[in-house]
């Protein structure tokens, strides 16, 4: 058995999302996928002057900077001892809040729930985001833990609808892309997996999950690395090749 080459730096420019692209970001707890998730969000809004991002955050793990009333969101997180702050972002609790966030000039909106509860509300906000999409304005839907919306058989959880599938399948024509992150792949709907343009695969806690990756069009050689913070990369534009293992360059995550 040959030893794989050591992970080497890879620029964010090489893998970042363009308008209408969809990316799967998969990795077990502590594997380092959040190290890549945050700079991908920033890259999108910096790349597109009119771009908008909606984050569905069910853990929750992100901190918004503002409320849609124009007041700082610090009190919302006063009991938190964790969470990545997204600069310039606004917390949205309703579809109407999403409209307010854009009117106030925010480019990143975060819809949060505690521990995967109240998913119907997040789906309603995602549907408003989908309805607002148009080809002339790039948008990106970020689902921080996709499996929270689906059961073990990939059926939508009670109270939710099919908006995440609709976004994945019909968003491209509207300039709407997606970044789908999670620890497991097993329960993801096939309708979402088959739309993936790119995959960044970190260490997996359940290695059998790689059996679902061919549904994205990926080759059987797309296998997770063993070390935390390393990942392998695949793109549908070059579907026969697997790149890596890589480690994201430090200057790309600042």
End-to-end CA span: 37 Å
Overall average residue pLDDT: 90
Strand content: 15-25%
The top level CATH class name: Alpha Beta
Widest β-sheet, arrangement of strands:
1-12-11-10-2-9-8-3-7-6
Order of helices and strands: EEHEEEEHEHEHEHEEE
> Tally the helices: what do you get?
5
Largest sheet: 10 strands, mixed
CATH superfamily: P-loop containing nucleotide triphosphate hydrolases
Shape estimate: globular
Helix content: 10-25%
Spans of 5+ residues with little confidence (pLDDT < 50)?
250-254
How large is the radius of gyration? 17 Å
Strand-pairing-aware structural class: alpha/beta
The third-level CATH topology is: Rossmann fold
Count of separate structural domains: 1
Annotated CATH architecture: 3-Layer(aba) Sandwich
- Number-wise, the strands total 12
